[in-house]
Specification:
about 280 residues, alpha/beta, five-stranded mixed sheet, 9 helices, about 45% helix, about 25% strand, globular, binds adenosine-5'-triphosphate, binds magnesium ion
Length: about 280
Amino acid sequence: MIRLEESNRLIEKFEEVLKTPLQAKGKTLYTGIDLGTAYIVLAVLDEKGEPVCGAYQPADVVKDGMVVDYMGAVKIVRKLKADLEEKIGQELYLAGVAIPPGTENIDGGVVKNVAEAAGFEVVQVLDEPTAANKVLKVQDGAVVDIGGGTTGISVIKNGEVVKVMDEASGGRHFSLVIAGAHKIPIEEAEKMKQDFNLHKEIFPLVQPVVKKIISIIEKAVEGYDVDELVLVGGTALLTGIEGFVEKETGLKTSKPSNPMFVTPLGIAEALIEGEK
Ligand SMILES: Nc1ncnc2c1ncn2[C@@H]1O[C@H](COP(=O)(O)OP(=O)(O)OP(=O)(O)O)[C@@H](O)[C@H]1O
Ligand SMILES: [Mg+2]
């Protein structure tokens, strides 16, 4: 049985420090940097694993898990870092980054270089599902990361990631469908999609994309004896998506209180673990 109370506590605390950063003079701080297709997120934890501050910004610097705008990425990370340092009155330097599974040889170095060019000392590069599971602590089940560009599924047995799969279906496809149906620009569709009041109206429109994602999940878990799913990634914010996935797959499905921050928090948690 997957329990998300502890993950939710951490995420909710993180959401508080996003708004009101804590003072952390003299503490060793650990920054998780998540360079995504849609957002760049920085999550900062203290040595006890408690959130200190964080920042995020929409960014167009990564496509299909690859950094396509190196200088743009460096600029944003550097700016978010400087803003946070000013707010908390302390320098941030120890950082970890994560990369989509399977891109280690192609892109692992690039993401690390972005963080280092922005002034961090990167002490760990790990794969995204392993990072996410540092927060979720799933023992047996599958974690489904529905991001901006892709959906990544990792199957977990005895707390270890045993299989990963990443396919091109994500939030951008939801926005494209909404844009097409309403004959509006994608930017406007993106805004509609992020308005929780419109989710009920939007759901039937995007249902085919959700079904596509469900077929990806079913293919990923086939033969793995998975009973439970956890949804993470910004697209999992869509109201009711977990219930629909549960009904269609017959697998118990849950999502943490804010699925968008799981991976960056997990990257930072893994750093602290690595220090012990
Ligand atoms: N309130 C919301 N409702 C629905 N979708 C949302 C909401 N807020 C953000 N999103 C979507 O979440 C997606 C971004 O999620 P996330 O930050 O997990 O992606 P990413 O890590 O940048 O991308 P990827 O993992 O594919 O590289 C975007 O497509 C965005 O439109
Ligand atoms: Mg992501």
